Amino acid sequence: MTRITTHERIAIQADTLFYEAGYEATSFADIAGAVGISRGNFYHHFKTKDDILDAVISRRMQATCAMLAAWESDSAPLARISSFIRILITNRTKIMAFGCPVGTLNTELTKLDHAARPRAAEIFRLFQSWLAAQFLLLGHGDKAEAHALHVLGRSQGIAVMASTFRDEAWICEEVSALEAWVEELQAKKAG
Questions:
Q1: What is d(CA 133, CA 145) in angstroms, rounded to the nearest whole number?
Q2: What is the DSSP-derived secondary structure letter of residue 147?
Q3: Quick one: which of 62, 66, 76 has its CA closest to 135?
Q4: Strand stretches in 114-176, DSSP E
Q5: How many whole angstroms separate alpha carbon 122 and alpha carbon 107?
């Protein structure tokens, strides 16, 4: 088992705090306290809050790539799309409490007109291109990109409403409806 470095522990705790409290509301002291280190030791690892944000975005990109790779190895394109959609159910407790981690970070960075916004948006672009590739494999050709954006956009809408209303049954209904939409698209393509 590899030992987690202090640098990695800081990035892990910052990721959680940025998600649960927001980037702007999270201070160096909050992160140092969560990690259990002094602020002086903290500055040895990260000089600025933007450096931490960069590490958090990198962690999220790596986690997203690993998740997508796992789905790629385990299933066919239709099931992969369903796995993406069902992540709303898998993570429903956190989504109801804090929203989508990718969506909330992008929204906050956009409001702040933060220089890291384009880099954070790359996580959405990764999802978009991955979903489009699945629709291409299903034979949707020139509609693959539009279908990918529809699934991505609708899933973000579900996440926003889930955090607003905190209605678990509604999340499940919406996930089922989105999956049914994808299955209907595929049935029309096959028929």
A1: 8
A2: H
A3: 76
A4: none
A5: 13
- Tell me the CB-side half-sphere exposure of residue 103, using CA atoms within 13 A: 19
Beta strands (DSSP E) in 30-184 are: none
Tokens of 3: 């030992």
Spatial CA neighbour of 138 closest among 79, 70, 98:
79
Q: Indicate the DSSP class of residue 48.
A: S
Q: E-strand spans in the chain? A: none
Nearest to 76 by CA among 124, 30, 133: 133
For helices 101-112 and 6-21, what crossing angle results, to 10°?
Answer: 80
Give Cα separations from 105 to 53, 85, 108, 155, 176 (angstroms). Answer: 10, 19, 5, 16, 26
Three-state SS string across 86-108, please? HHHHHCHHHHHHHCCHHHHHHHH
Distance CA 118, CA 23 (A): 15
Instruction: Note the pLDDT of residue 1.
Output: 67
| Residue 107 burial by Cβ neighbours in a 10 Å radius (0-12, 13-18, 19+) | middle
pLDDT tens for each residue of 127-174: 999 999 999 999 999 999 999 999 999 999 999 999 999 999 999 999
Question: pLDDT at residue 75 above 90?
Answer: no
Determine if the pTM surpasses 0.90: yes
Cα distances (Å, whole numbers) of residue 133 to 81, 126, 129, 143:
10, 11, 6, 11
Whether residue 120 has pLDDT greater than 80 = yes
